[in-house]
Amino acid sequence: MDFWRLAPLRRQVLLPLFTGKVAAGFPSPADDYIEKTLDLNELLVKKPAATFFARAQGESMLGAGIHHNDILIVDRSIDPVPGHIVVCALNGELTVKSLDRDHGQWQLKAENPDYPDIAIFEDLELVIWGVVTNVIHPLWHSHCSP
Question: What does the angle CA 75 – CA 45 – CA 128 come to, to the nearest 5 degrees?
């Protein structure tokens, strides 16, 4: 995984946020009124001092909407609980998985049936680095026309 710290903000980039919703079902008449402006830092980063970015590698989390090369926004200030997606070091290897507890047994769950879940036992060295709060991924690739 590649990691980045959140750099100090040099300037805000405010983009228009439209009042109308974009229908994901049946189309609706377009509203072209601007509600306000939106800064993605404000939307995606709640605690800058506790936030870092990581790039996902592999396909074990496809079912959670995390694809190879996606950027993960990770918050170290959130206490991980079952159901959270976490970035952790497992025996020195970095991974992103869903944290789960089944019949008292903690495990790191893959969100792809082609990958095994990992039961957490005392002899494993596990350090949870943070909870994934958001994922950024493109819907098209640079070799395709938009």
Answer: 5
